[in-house]
Amino acid sequence: VEVRASSGGLTKVRASSEGQIGYALAPMIARGLMLGPDQVVILHMLDIPPVAEALNGVKMELVDAAFPLLKGVVATTDVVEAFTGVNIAVMVGGFPLQEGMERKEVMPKNVSIYKAQASALEKHADPNCKVLVVANPANTNALILKEFSPSIPAKNITCLTRLDHNRALSQIAERLNVHVSDVKNVIIWGNHSSTQYPDVNHVTIMTKDGEKKVRELVSDDQWLNGEFITTVQQRGAAIIKARKLSSALSAASSACDHIRDWVLGTSKGTWVSMGVYSDGSYGVPAGLIYSFPVTCEKGEWSIVQGLKIDDFSRAKMDATANELAEEKSMAHSFLE
Ligand code: LMR
């Protein structure tokens, strides 16, 4: 069934729900935070057999919450049942990172999971299914998913960097003591990892005197070019250290933001960051899933073109592209 912004059409959404992100995400979707307040949904939740009973408990809770938009819940450990007919697939399942681990350490386990899921998705999901990969290494998992589901359009397979984008907006808002909704157009370039480049060169802040560039308001270039960048790059690790668990509510919330803007469109004059299949824009090698600034309209994203890139940015954009190229060859070597 088509995803429509304001119709009674049914939308099936799949999300692994037993895990922390899934548990946070399911009620957000059911409340309309992902597809809007007029879109009814059917949730398909997939998890592994050892947690089938717990997954069923989540289904019971979703039923108990009596969400007006929730027209059905499928809780299953069978990929075919999970993927059949879905319009949107949010891939949160995977082997999780633990404190002190780098994303590439979970790669061998996760690439084989994503290869298997690619085939199931291709065979059973709606042919125009939109896919968002959240589980790490998110860009490379998405790339493997893309490579092993050749009949799904490449444009439909994306990964989450909206979490990093939102973190960057919030860091700036905190620093300037303004509301986060007054800050816009940060860019996350590259990998959802510690090499990502949060670029503030186009950020604007809405003030009572109109829109200002962030560099006019934050006089401390050292902060913008140093601590700001590392704070955003390391934020996932800082959350793991504090919670002894990966981020979950912020990941779920930004996954909703990602899909909502993709399906319903970005607001005028505003872009967001999404990990998408590179077409070579900004000199980023084609054939990587790389985070770019995008605008969305009528369910399609397009990369914002023509932004000026200085030498500082160029070096950081290349470094994160190099890491993605390394991850890609590493992933291929595990799959051989
Ligand atoms: C995050 O950015 O919070 C997560 O990607 C951390 C992780 O690797 O689980």
UniProtKB/TrEMBL annotation:
Domain Lactate/malate dehydrogenase C-terminal: 161-333
Domain named Lactate/malate dehydrogenase N-terminal: residues: 18-157
Enzymatic class: oxidoreductase
Binding positions for NAD(+) per the UniProt entry: 47, 110, 134-136
EC number: 1.1.1.37
Catalytic reaction list: (S)-malate + NAD(+) = oxaloacetate + NADH + H(+)
GO MF annotation terms: L-malate dehydrogenase (NAD+) activity
A biological process term (GO) from this entry: malate metabolic process
Database matches in Pfam families: Ldh_1_C, Ldh_1_N
Active site: 192
Superkingdom of the organism of origin: Eukaryota
Keyword terms of this UniProt record: NAD, Oxidoreductase, Tricarboxylic acid cycle
Family the entry assigns: Belongs to the LDH/MDH superfamily. MDH type 2 family.
PANTHER family found in the cross-reference section: MALATE DEHYDROGENASE
UniProt name for this protein: Malate dehydrogenase
Organism: Dendrobium nobile
